[in-house]
Specification:
binds S-adenosyl-L-homocysteine; binds FE3-S4 cluster; single chain; binds iron/sulfur cluster; six-stranded parallel β-sheet; Rossmann fold; OB fold (Dihydrolipoamide Acetyltransferase, E2P); alpha/beta; pyruvate-formate lyase- activating enzyme; five-stranded mixed beta barrel
Length: 447
């Protein structure tokens, strides 16, 4: 953070606005780190920034549309501040590339997720009056060129990208097109980055990947899977908690399930999207698993780690989904008992196979989404309520909303707040849960 001591005349200000998934959150930090050597420091608002980067998401239509409305707002700022640079990064940049320059003349540069290491050179081109676009898939690994995050961290919990891209091609999804083919980072690089994070006070690392459990990174002459990587990370002193997200059911191998039973630092929380409960819909989605496969998998995971909290993603109104198909989704939700979930109306994405199919009417989608969300909310409330009375180890991350409070996360990724001093930030404190809300828990230190 800029604290005054580092500020000086002539400093340049960078504002990065992040949309979409945690991968983008992580990439935004890396972009800031890549531009720090050029004298850019982070600005919390676009108003007084010299460079504004929108790190965008293309997953649903609404997400993509947000970008253009934000550019409309920035255009007004730019009119008052000539020389301000507006850049578009992320998955919309990757999907639309140079077209964005035509649609929004205020944009100065367009950079896809694989080209962030070229940002310094791109800004130099903007200064020469060009409008550079980098939205191809280079053979090189962007991580070889991006500096590790060199900025001080406030939070004791950090993300670390271990895998990027996806080869699964679910019929609804843009990720294989915007993030490219699946690539895993080498083990040594990940361990070095994790050690650097821990040296800076990080206690919890969430390993990121669009298909994180498909991880297969080079380790000397061999390859290591995610289970092996988790075990290697668990050996780092001072690293207390490990999580990973997002997983595909078909990549949930036995050794990873076993790690949930055996590695104490691996937290009992798993985001395992299923999307739908009807086998007909799952087949049309190209998910390559049935509802029964998923339920059996959940059983095996729970056998290894009985208290594991499960989270999921759901799509309603996928082309061809009938009321009976939708009921199968509700049945699956009832059978699993999710601690948490995201659910969406199907949004046709240009270039994906399902976009060309006959669509479910909007009103039908909205009705199913409301019913599904009511069911998921009840499931989440039950999970939250079941923790009342228990003592949970909470990693304290930040001051709470009220003075004299701190806030952190339970092993199950629940937000927990309790009375405590800011000095507790970074430590793991036993907290007795006294009250459960839908999105957070209240507790008191149990000593
Ligand atoms: N790689 C992860 C996340 C993919 S995107 C995974 O495989 O789970 C996150 C979620 O967005 C998906 O799980 C899916 O539920 C949702 N999603 C993706 N494309 C969508 C679309 N076209 N319409 C609605 N929801 C979509
Ligand atoms: Fe998209 Fe499917 Fe890949 Fe997930 S597994 S990123 S939903 S294509
Ligand atoms: Fe969105 Fe791209 Fe992530 S489309 S969900 S920002 S991978």
């Amino acid at each position: 953070m800029a604290d005054g001591s580092t500020g000086g005349a002539g400093r340049l200000r960078l504002h990065v606005k992040t949309y979409g998934c945690q991968m983008n959150v992580y990439d935004s930090e890396r972009m800031a780190a890549a531009l720090a050597p050029l004298g850019y420091e982070s600005a919390d608002a676009a108003d007084d920034a010299d460079v504004v980067l929108l790190n965008t998401c293309h997953i649903r239509e609404k997400a993509a549309e947000k970008v253009y409305s934000e550019i409309g707002r920035l255009k007004a700022l730019k009119a008052a501040r000539p020389g301000m640079v507006i850049g578009v990064a992320g998955c919309v940049a990757q999907a639309e590339g140079a077209e964005m320059l035509d649609r929004a003349p205020a944009i100065d540069l367009v950079v896809g997720p694989q080209a962030y290491h070229r940002l310094p050179a791109m800004l130099a081109r903007v200064a020469r009056g060009e409008r550079p676009v980098e939205a191809d898939f280079p053979a090189e690994d962007k991580f070889d060129h991006l500096p590790e995050d060199a900025r001080p961290r406030r939070a004791p919990a950090a993300f670390l990208t271990v895998q990027e891209g996806c080869d699964k091609f679910c019929a609804f999804c843009v990720v294989p097109y915007t993030r490219g083919a699946e690539v895993s980072r080498p083990v040594a690089r990940i361990l070095a980055e994790a050690e650097a994070l821990v040296a800076r006070g990080v206690r919890e690392i969430t390993l990121l990947g669009q298909n994180v459990n498909a991880y297969h990174g080079a380790d000397g002459g061999r390859e290591l899977g995610l289970a092996g990587l988790v075990r290697r990370l668990a050996a780092i002193d001072g690293l207390e908690r490990i999580r990973y997200t997002t997983s595909h059911p078909n990549d949930m191998r036995d050794d990873l399930i076993a790690a949930h039973a055996e590695v104490a630092k691996l937290m009992p929380y798993l985001h395992l999207p299923v999307q739908a409960g009807s086998d007909r819909v799952l087949r049309a989605m190209n998910r390559k698993h049935t509802a029964e496969d998923y339920l059996r998998l959940v059983e095996r995971i729970r056998a290894a780690r009985p208290d594991i909290a499960l989270s999921g993603d759901f799509i309603v109104g996928f082309p061809g989904e009938t009321e009976a198909d939708f009921q199968a989704t509700l049945d699956l939700v009832g059978a699993v008992g999710y601690a948490h979930a995201y659910s969406f109306k199907y949004s046709p994405r240009p270039g994906t196979p399902a976009a060309a199919r006959a669509q479910v009417p909007e009103a039908e989608k909205a009705d199913r989404l409301a019913r599904l969300q009511a069911r998921l909310a009840a499931s989440q409330a039950a999970f939250q309520a079941a923790t009342v009375g228990r003592v949970l180890p909470v990693l304290v991350e930040k001051p709470g909303r009220m003075p004299g409070q701190v806030a952190g996360r339970s092993p199950y990724l629940q937000a927990v707040h309790f009375a405590g001093e800011p000095a507790l930030i970074g430590s793991i404190v036993p907290v007795r849960i006294v009250e459960a809300g839908n999105n957070s828990l209240a507790g008191e230190v149990a000593l």
